[in-house]
Amino acid sequence: KVGVCFGNSWGYICPEDWDNNDAKVICRQLGLSLTWTGGKGIDAEYENLNDRLWMNEVQCTGNETRLLECGRRRLGTLRSNCDDGGFAAVACLREIPCTNGQFRLVSAAPANTTQQLVTKGRLEYCIDLSWASVCRRGNYADKLNIICRKMNIFSTAAPRLLLVPDITAATDNIVTISINCAPPTQDNCTVIVDDRAESSCSHSDDIGIDCNPSIEPTAGGGGGQRNYVLLIASVTTAGGLFLTVTLILLIIIIIACVVVKVKNKKKLDLYNQTYDRRPSGDKW
């Protein structure tokens, strides 16, 4: 819970409009700007209806060095003036867990499995510097290939949508997303978070993606450690190898045909030049 000393008295901040930009300024003002990489606004767990509120509607950009440099409305009254209830609180993070807009797949490998690649698992999206599982109610079912490409997974097989509510212990957060792409290509895409739909989702609605159905984990000595990694592309499948060999042979045949055609053309040109130099009359 964030305490503010004003007029030699401690008070607190109403959480209305409180966000990560406000939290960053608090962490920086506490001298954590060099060691800690950012702040995150959280809900305070402390309740005391007699605590004084000094500030409301704090509006920081995240670049300020002190809280008093931010736009705000000073209250100095009791809790009845805070519409949102609760208090503004901050978690100063030594490391930012993720970058907003990232996707990842979370998979729990069996104890006797060494999983070098994670291409199938529960889909998570980074929002407000935290991972959130993705609800199945969003509009993205026809954009699975785009999501896989954002995680650097490229496959000739079409990705599949999975319902995997029990694949691992889910994160606390749930997010509903839609993906909009600008025509005619699907290279310029935007992820839109639907805040209104989140209340209708639970972790039983968590979805997963199988970005490359042809890849399976390899058996080996594992310690049962879960893999929380961003995905790496792989094309080492039997089908991919066959396709590669076929393409190489086709290229060799095309090159050979071009070489033969060029040689035949040179012979024809030489013959035509010799014929054009023939003397006039009936004799050579």
TrEMBL record:
GO cellular component: membrane
InterPro entries: SRCR, SRCR-like_dom_sf
Protein name: SRCR domain-containing protein
Transmembrane portions of the chain: 228-260
Source organism per UniProt: Amphimedon queenslandica (Sponge)
PANTHER family, per the entry: DELETED IN MALIGNANT BRAIN TUMORS 1 PROTEIN-RELATED, SRCR DOMAIN-CONTAINING PROTEIN
Major localization class: membrane
Signal peptide: none
Stored Pfam families: SRCR (PF00530)
Residue pairs linked by disulfide bridges in the UniProt entry: C60-C70
Gene3D superfamilies: SRCR-like domain (3.10.250.10)
Membrane disposition: Single-pass membrane protein
Subcellular location: Membrane
